[in-house]
Amino acid sequence: QVRLVESGGGLVQAGGSLRLSCAASGSIFSFDVMGWYRQAPGAQREMVATITSGGKTNYADSVRGRLTISRDNAKDTVYLLMNSLKPEDSAVYYCNTYSQLGGNYWGKGTLVTVSS
Fold first, then answer.
1. Pair type for strands 10-13 and 67-72
2. Is residue 22 helix, strand or coil?
């Protein structure tokens, strides 16, 4: 069973930075895509950023240029460096992994709160 453990959320002032980490374990297959999604109260879950095993990245327009996704394939860990945070970035951030052979998995989420 794949297990995803997120860390790094918290409370930060607008303009500040946070770094989220997500460590994956329990898979016998490599992760084709790892990514971060977020869900604010009353809103649908949305894609924030994804990265393939080859390093190709994709960002939501609202975060491009401020957030950077990266991964360490040897550690099955994905990171999200968040700079210039805005109050509208406040949400629960979920780690996601996808493997064509192993399936799709979600973490339990980590809360990010950006105060104005």
1. unpaired
2. strand
